[in-house]
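Dear colleagues,

As part of the handover before I leave the project, I'm documenting each prediction I ran so the next person doesn't have to rerun anything. This entry is a single chain, and its sequence is reproduced below.
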Amino acid sequence: MRDLSDWKGCPAPKPVIIEGRYVRIEPYDRAMHLQALWNEAFGGMAINPLLKYFSQDDFSGIEDFDAWLSGVQQKSGWITEVFRDKATGKIVGMANYMRADPANGVVEVGGVAHGAAMARSPLSTEAHYLMARHVFEDLGYRRYEWKCHSENQPSRTTAARLGFTFEGIFRQHMVSKRANRDTAWYSMIDSEWPLLKAAFERWLSADNFDGQGRQKRRLEEIREELATKEQT
């Protein structure tokens, strides 16, 4: 744990551009990204099953999606970042920095939505690596959170794969779509980041993929190997 005797807090997250090998992270711009998210990334009305575990009601069209996204930015302070596939130039997903607590160095990544083009590719892994790196290295945060509906198994699997630690279930945490939501909480902390970063970078390296773009080694396997070496 870092020495906090001179702790002065962290800057609040702001919209940021981050360049990766496979993905470019861009601040959400309504004129540039709204149609691309709705049509290209999320397939229009196919967005509703994709966002099944989000708390808002189903969208009846792009106008509802626009109003919701504008609302969470203006009223809740979400910083929406969109993901662009550098190979195709297309918008493929989004995530948000949210519930920032700069005084204590805590921020959450949420409102995560991966379009179909992000499946079975390095895009999602690199996007979340870059967002975490920005939080820990550029902004100096101590804790990075991931929360999801306890029944959202794909999200829980993703959090664990990325290296977030499961901390428990907050029972009756929210009312979501007029039903109870128990929330699963996960986090990364700054002391864990060097090992997590090393695992991300080894997994993302070009030599970890074959000619068809398939991974040779799993991220969890690389992380476990690095942790074992650290302990010996």
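Strands lie at 18-19, 23-27, 79-85, 91-101, 106-114, 143-149, 165-176, 179-189. Helices lie at 30-41, 47-50, 62-74, 123-138, 153-162, 193-204, 219-231.

All the best with the project,
I.
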